[in-house]
Specification:
Structural class: alpha/beta
Number of domains: 1
Largest sheet: 8 strands, parallel
CATH architecture: Alpha-Beta Barrel
Helix content: 25-40%
Strand order of the largest sheet: 1-2-3-4-5-6-7-8
Order of helices and strands: EHEHEHEHEHEHEHHEHHH
Number of helices: 11
CATH topology: TIM Barrel
Length: about 325
Amino acid sequence: MPSVGLGLWKVSPEDAPSMVHSSIDAGYRHLDSACDYGNEAAVGVGIQSALADGLCRREDLWVTSKLWNTYHDKAHVKSACRRTLDDLSLDYLDLYLIHFPIALRYVEFEERYPPEWIYDPCSDHPRMERASVPLHQTWQAMEALVDEGLVRHIGVCNYNAALIHDLMAYARIKPAMLQVELHPYLQQRALLRTAQDYQLPVTAFSPLGAASYVELNMATAPDSVLLEPVVLAIAQRMGRPAAQVVLRWGIQRGTAVIPKSSHAQRRSENLALFDFALSDADMVALNQLERGRRFNNPADFCEGAFNRFHAIYE
C-alpha cells in the first residue's frame, strides 16, 4: 500500500470526481474512502475517468473502503461491500475496514443510504440505537469477503489495544491494517507498539490533527499542530510547509498517512515527503508535543449529536 493516500472524508459529491481525477494525475495511487462519507459513487466517477484517460491501471491503485456501523451483522456485511463496489464501479477492494467497533441497528439501503448514526431521524426521540452483534461475528463475515475475492485485504479502524489482542486470538485471516487517529497531539505509542508486536501495519487518519474538525465544531483553529513553534521552526529551517513536516513525522514513525485537502497545490505538497528527512533531534522535539488530544471521539460527539452516550476509549 502506498504510504501516502488521499483521504476522502468530507469531500462533497460535486467535488469528488474532479478531485480524484486530478489527484491520480498528480501521482496519488492510494484512495481512502468509506460508505459513511456519502460520496463513493462520485469517487467512482473520478476513478473511472482517470482509468479511461490512461492515467493509471486499476492494479496500480490501492482503494480502501469501510464497513459502516449499521451493517455489522453477518447477514449485511456482503451486501454492504457489494454496494460500495457498485458505487465505486470496481470489481474488488484492495482493503476493507470495520469503520468503528460499534454495531448499530440495521437500516435498509432503500430507506436511507448512507444511514449515518441515527436509526430513525423522523421519530419523536431520534437517536443512535445499538445492535447486539459481537465483533467476532462481523470479522468472520469480513473474512468471507476475502474468500470470495470481493476484497484483497481486511482490517479495522478505531480499535484499541485490547480489541487488537482479542481480534488476533480468533482471526482466521489476520487484519492487514489498523487505521486510527494519529498526529503529534495524539501519538498512541502503546497502541503502535502493540500493532508492531503483531506486525500489523498502521495508517494515521487526521494526520494533521485539528484541521478536519474545526468546521464541525469539534476543534478550534488554535488547536492546530501546524501553529506549534517547533513545527514552524523546523519548517522554516528546512524550507518546507508545516504540513510536510508533520506528515513526514508520521512517515518516519512507520505509519501511512491519509491527509485530505481541497487545494491541488497542497495535495501535491502532501505527496512530496520522500526527498527529505527529519533529524533525530527534530523527531524528539515533535514527540514532545504529545497532549493526548483526540479529536474523533464518540464519547465526545455521540451524546450531543445522536442523543446516545457511547464510549469506545477510556
